[in-house]
Each structure stands twice: as structure tokens, then as C-alpha cells.
Q: What sequence folds into this?
């Protein structure tokens, strides 16, 4: 014989119990027993029907109590599910807030990283140039050197001017000397001609 599946067992129970709980069937049995008890002829039959009614009534009360317990349990389960749902909702809200906060932190971290990279690049550029103190020292040194060169230039110009004056005096002296020599030569030629003329006259 093949094994009976769970679906077949549930189907048979539904066919027997009606809606599956069996309360309607028990109420029907209790009603029939009550009618038989009312129509019973002998005391023994009436007592038997009475006991059956009590048994059926006990089953109904037990079933009702079990149903109430199940109902209370379902209410508690629903309350528990609502608490869990509320807790899940709160956790989701907290998670969304945490995610939003993390996004802000990530954006801030990116901003800080970008600024740090810009600062590092600027620091490298600044390091390639001398600082203000060194620059002032270089300017001061250049200024001193410029003053020294200016003084040298003035000295050279003074010497050049002196040399020009000396050269001018020298040229003047040379010219005077040359003029004197020329005059002396003329006088000498004149004396020589006079002597020659005198010699010629004495010879005649």
C-alpha cells in the first residue's frame, strides 16, 4: 500500500470536520442528542443521552477553550510581529540615517583629501622659491654690490676725465713745442741766409 501524503490527510480531516475545527459537527451531535433525550422513552435511555450530551458539551467547551488559547496566542504573536515590525522600521530608519551620515563623511573626507593635495602642491611650489628672509638678504647683497659698482663707475669716470685733461694739456704742450721748433727753424734759416750773404759780400 502506498504512503498517504499530508495533503490527503488534511483533505480527509476537512471532509470529516467540515471547516477543520469540528465545532459544527459537535454542535449538530449535541442537538441530535438533545432531541433524542427529549424523545427518550425510558429513564436509562435518557440518562445515556444525557451523558452523551455532557461529553459532547465538554468537547465543545474544550474546543472553545483551545480556540481562545490559540486566539490569545495569535494576538500575542501579532503584537510580537508588530513590535518586530516597528523595531525593523526603526532599524531601517537608523540605517538610512547612518548611510546619509556616512555619505556626508565620505564627501567631507574627499573634500579634505582634495584640499590636502592642493596644499601639498602649493607647498611644493613654495619650497621651490626662497623664503622672504633669504630674498631680502639677496636684495641687500645686490644693493651693496650695485653701490660698489656705482662707486667704481664714478672713480673710473673721474680718472677718465683726469686723463682727458692731461691728454689735452699734453696736446697743447706738443703743439707749443712744435710751434717753437718751427720758429727756431725759421730763425735758424734766416741766420744762415744772413751769414751766407755776409760771406758773399766779403768775398767781393
A:
Amino acid at each position: 500500500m502506498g504512503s498517504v501524503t499530508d495533503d490527503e490527510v488534511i483533505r480527509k480531516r476537512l471532509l470529516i470536520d467540515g471547516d477543520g475545527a469540528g465545532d459544527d459537527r459537535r454542535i449538530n451531535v449535541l442537538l441530535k442528542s438533545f432531541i433524542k433525550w427529549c424523545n427518550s422513552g425510558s429513564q436509562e435511555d435518557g440518562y445515556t443521552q444525557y451523558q452523551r450530551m455532557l461529553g459532547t458539551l465538554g468537547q465543545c467547551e474544550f474546543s472553545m477553550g483551545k480556540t481562545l488559547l490559540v486566539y490569545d496566542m495569535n494576538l500575542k504573536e501579532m503584537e510580537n510581529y508588530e513590535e518586530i515590525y516597528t523595531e525593523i522600521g526603526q532599524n531601517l530608519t537608523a540605517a538610512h540615517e547612518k548611510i546619509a551620515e556616512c555619505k556626508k563623511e565620505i564627501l567631507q573626507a574627499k573634500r579634505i583629501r582634495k584640499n590636502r593635495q592642493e596644499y601639498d602642491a602649493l607647498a611644493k611650489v613654495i619650497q621651490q622659491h626662497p623664503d622672504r628672509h633669504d630674498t631680502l638678504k639677496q636684495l641687500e647683497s645686490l644693493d651693496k654690490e650695485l653701490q660698489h659698482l656705482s662707486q667704481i663707475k664714478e672713480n673710473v669716470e673721474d680718472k677718465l676725465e683726469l686723463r682727458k685733461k692731461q691728454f689735452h694739456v699734453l696736446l697743447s704742450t706738443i703743439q707749443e713745442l712744435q710751434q717753437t721748433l718751427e720758429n727756431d727753424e725759421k730763425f735758424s734759416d734766416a741766420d744762415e741766409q744772413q751769414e751766407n750773404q755776409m760771406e758773399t759780400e766779403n768775398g767781393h
